[in-house]
Design brief:
By secondary structure, the protein is of the alpha/beta class. Bound molecules: beta-D-glucopyranose (BGC). Beta-D-glucopyranose binds next to loops.
Length: 727
């Protein structure tokens, strides 16, 4: 929830602002990097208001360091304004949760919120009071390494995930000692980088920006996010960190956001490279004018604002607005009243935290294929754990694990050995020394291990360094010689369960063809091993669903379910084009000659160890008025033999509108747990406002006409009905 403005707080803030010199005000706009003696001196002089990465991960006494810097601010500087201290607590602090893209696959905002709460509690015990998360950039191009950090391709899913993280990081009370200020990033459009290459240009029509890229940020603001980070990208010719339209007009004016905006790392300075500003002086003016309140690391504000203000080229009002926003968040964090912290032993890696990590890691795994080999229960006496990621603790944590330590990670090999102790033997052969390796010397040992086992669990995918910032790929297949390893192991003739660990959507048609089962585990974090053992051995049924389409081939990118239909959509009977083998098209429809037009797996897809039947779709009415809501429901039955969770998804299409609309848009979803044979009517309430889009005037509108609705298991299937919206 957005915080209500407190009159008392605003009065304290104004009283403080009235005492501040220009230098002190500009100090608040300045974020420095690291706990150096120079920075401590600047803090004492009131010239630094924030620090990023105060302590290294191996710092012996982070609480003492934190308190000493806060002391320099509170006791050393003239006005005693406390520091706000930020760090990238992206998917956990010491207890690492799955990467955010994996978390989105849980379709479970409550569990994601709990994970963020854990991360906040752990980070706050170090004196961190601000995290640079959640990242809510919509990403429809898996080549982009940072797709790992966000909530996937869909604005509704990413909004739910982002808002859940904000609630988790900030808790019920931002002023509580275990709360962190959240920072929704990277505002905005960063995920649309051309060619999936990080930092690249983005060209996004405003309506599309408002309908697809902005909603997750809006959801974070509505959830009370204290801060936002302006992005690196050039957005339609104006860098995001100098963009008055998105920052000043949309965020601050239209949405009424009263927290502050921090730049990304040197993104103000980078406006010179973009070719938007001639020098740092211009960059400082452009960023502050646009509404970037605090500068991360680069020195444009500190170097140039004093003179720009003195000469009247930057009005003092701009500075005051920024300072007010920063102080407001410092007050809301309770830093003025409680600047120092006490050590809190036993917080990091607390058993309850690890239990949450295990639950979330299990909920994130998506079962793509199962010919019946899973779960691996009673018959297996000898299991071969093979592959470069079977026992690779650092890789399993994924990207952005600033404070995660490999020594705390439980790998699948360790977890399977523990779970099967006394019941079955687990042999191990990595096959390859690393995910990118082409050294096939270990293949023979791997094949022998496969031959000697009843079943194989083969852990393939990407190492942690293949996704994240600046880690983009032009290929979406298994790196190194992993395809060869799969081929060799599969030839041993035992059932092969492939577990994919990856920081993005990979194109894996061959993996599918050569295996008995495929479980997509993303990078599952500290407790990924036990979570995978729970799933593989059947203690839990997989319940994750894809937050992105999985392509057949990189050449299909960008590929996302909420596409427009075109005037010549490809037809179902045109499916089946064999990859890499050009076929002459029979018709002139929108597809490729050498790969099918559909994804390998659609958005929302995921199997369980049970089966579900959808029937009796009912709508409360064939037509609704503008102010009404529609109730849509369906009977869901677990027709299998195991308890499992089905993620029931509601999609809508606006059949004809003044601007073409996507063929389907996710509107809502529910995780429903049913026992074998159990049946339940699952109900959604669809408000007419959920049918809105931005018209040519950039205003939200709901147009009368026909809508099609689906309730089903993914973006490509479902029972459907139509309804009308009438004036
Ligand atoms: C990244 C941000 C991150 C910041 C601080 C930048 O390079 O783009 O996501 O929060 O560094 O580490």
């Amino acid at each position: 929830m957005r915080p209500r403005r407190s009159r008392k707080l605003e009065a304290r803030l104004e009283a403080l602002l009235a005492q501040m010199t220009l230098a002190e005000k500009l100090g608040q706009l300045n974020q420095a990097h690291g706990g150096t003696p120079e920075n401590k001196a600047l803090v004492g002089q009131g010239r630094v208001g924030s620090l990023i990465n105060l302590c290294p991960t191996d710092c012996p006494d982070p609480v003492a360091v934190y308190n000493s810097f806060q002391e320099a601010a509170v006791k050393g500087s003239r006005l005693g304004i406390p520091l706000i201290i930020g760090r990238d607590v992206i998917h956990g602090f010491r207890t690492m949760f799955p990467i955010p893209l994996g978390q989105a696959a849980s379709f479970d905002p409550d569990l994601v919120c709990q994970a963020a709460r854990v991360a906040a509690t752990e980070a706050a015990s170090w004196g961190i009071n601000w995290t640079f998360a959640p990242m809510v950039d919509i990403a429809r191009d898996p080549r982009w390494g940072r797709s790992a950090e966000g909530g996937g391709e869909d604005p509704v899913l990413a909004s739910r995930m982002g808002a859940a993280m904000v609630r988790g990081f900030q808790g019920d009370d931002l002023g509580a000692p275990d709360s962190l200020a959240a920072c929704a990033k990277h505002y905005v459009g960063y995920g649309a980088a051309e060619g999936g290459r990080d930092y690249n240009t983005t060209l996004i029509p405003e309506g599309y920006l408002r309908d697809v890229y902005l909603p997750p940020f809006r959801a974070c603001v509505e959830a009370g996010a204290a801060t936002l980070m302006s992005a690196f990208n050039d957005l339609n010719g104006v860098p995001a960190s100098g963009n008055e339209l998105t920052l000043r007009r949309i965020l601050k004016k239209e949405w009424g956001f009263d927290g502050f905006v921090v730049s990304d790392w040197a993104s103000i300075d980078e406006m010179i490279s973009h070719g938007y500003c001639a020098n740092r002086r211009e960059a400082a003016r452009a960023a502050l004018r646009a509404g970037v309140d605090m500068e991360m690391v680069s020195p444009c504000y500190a170097e140039h604002l004093p003179d720009l203000v003195a000469r009247g080229e930057v009005p003092l009002d701009w500075v005051d607005d920024a300072v007010r926003r920063i102080l407001r968040i410092k007050f809301r964090l309770g830093l003025f009243d409680r600047p120092f912290i006490e050590p809190r032993p036993g917080v990091l890696l607390n058993p309850a935290h690890l239990a949450t990590a295990r639950r979330l890691a299990a909920a994130c795994c998506v079962l793509l294929k199962n010919d019946g080999v899973l779960p691996l229960d009673c018959g297996v006496r000898k299991l071969a754990a093979i592959g470069p990621l079977a026992d690779a603790p650092a890789e399993q944590m994924g990207c952005w694990t600033v404070d995660g330590l490999a020594r705390d990670v439980v790998t699948p090999l360790a977890a399977l050995r523990e779970a099967l102790a006394g019941r079955a033997e687990v042999t191990y052969a990595p096959g390859l020394p690393g995910a990118r390796s082409t050294d096939t010397a270990g293949f023979a040992e791997a094949v022998a291990a496969a031959r000697g086992a009843d079943a194989v669990a083969l852990f393939l995918g990407e190492d942690a360094g293949m996704s994240g910032e600046a880690h983009c790929r032009a290929f979406l297949d298994l790196p190194g010689a992993q395809a060869g390893l799969l081929e060799a192991v599969a030839a041993a003739g035992r059932p092969v369960v492939v577990v994919v660990m990856a920081g993005r959507a990979l194109a894996l048609p061959d993996v599918l063809a050569k295996s008995s089962a495929v479980l997509y585990a993303w990078h599952p974090g500290t407790m990924g091993g036990p979570a995978l053992a729970d799933l593989l051995l059947g203690a839990e049924s997989p319940s994750g669903r894809l937050p992105v389409c999985l392509p057949r081939h990189v050449g299909q990118i960008p590929l996302y379910y909420a596409k427009r239909n075109t005037g010549r959509p490809a037809r179902d009977e045109e499916r089946g084009a064999p990859a890499g083998t050009p076929l002459d098209p029979k018709d002139f429809t929108s597809r490729y000659m050498d790969v099918e037009h559909t994804p390998l797996f659609p958005f929302g897809f995921g199997l369980t160890y049970s089966s579900f039947e959808y029937k009796e779709l009912q709508l409360s009415s064939p037509a609704i008025g503008r102010d009404d809501a529609l109730t849509a429901s369906i009977r869901l039955t677990n027709t299998g033999r195991r308890e499992a969770v089905e993620v029931v998804q509601l999609y809508v299409r606006d059949v004809a509108a003044s601007l073409t609309r996507p063929v389907r848009e996710l509107k809502d979803f529910q995780r429903v747990r049913l026992g074998p044979g159990e049946s339940r009517r699952v109900e959604f309430v669809l408000r007419s406002s959920q049918l809105a889009f931005h018209g040519p005037d950039m205003k939200l509108r709901v147009e009368a006409g026909e809508f099609r609705l689906w309730i089903g298991p993914d973006a490509a299937r479902g029972d459907s009905a139509t309804f009308a919206l009438t004036d």
